[in-house]
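Researcher: Here's the sequence for the chain we discussed earlier.
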Amino acid sequence: MKGFRYTPARRDTGNGRHPAGRPQAPPLGEQILQQQCGTTERARQFYDNQVTARLTPAMVVFIGRMEMAFVATSDGAGDCDCSFRAGPAGFVRVLDERTVAYPEFRGNGVMASLGNIVENPHVAILMIDFTQDLIGLHVNGAAEIVTPAYVEALDSTLPEQPACPGKRPVQWVLVRVTEAYVHCSKHIPKLVPQSRVRHWGTDNPRHKGGDYFGVAARNQARQAAAAVPGDLAGARHPDELRLPAGSPAGIFML
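Model: Thanks. This is the structure I predict for it:
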């Protein structure tokens, strides 16, 4: 996809934020609930002291040491998706105080997040430090899908990409920051990082989690029940069916 760059149509969702300077008035829904719950003044202090339309130097340093992020998107109808992203420290790149980018690696081919961005460019990224400072950072903005070559041209400090195809980005998501703010530390658990083998770009079901939640097995059971002729088809609820011993349990592709 050389030269590929997808920029979704910009549309105002009425979120009340301004892309430059300090964010403006909060969304109407927030204001209504704050009034009903008596938190308007407390919320105003948060907006004034914690919400910014540009990344601060401390935010840039924080992003540079993160190894994971949660990315929330929604389609044109508002149906939401939240996905986990991970990579070496600094895999989310800060291009300037208003622009970040994160890589998209080879996955299951569904492209749920990217598909949403095609319909609706607004994304929300949450990064949490679970091991050191126990603090989080929200970065919200408008996204577009770009090629690795495009990001390489923008980011002169981007490390050389790995030789392993699974570790190389297939494409990138470029995010124009509209607001960034802290995530409170008081309920963030402290985790102890441990090394593990990561199977980049694999399609091996065992390395991807297999049928951990039993979806494939249940669907196969339902298909088997539907294939039984006559009155036998309704003899047992599909969820009660069990595959014979030795039958394949199915594959759940993450």
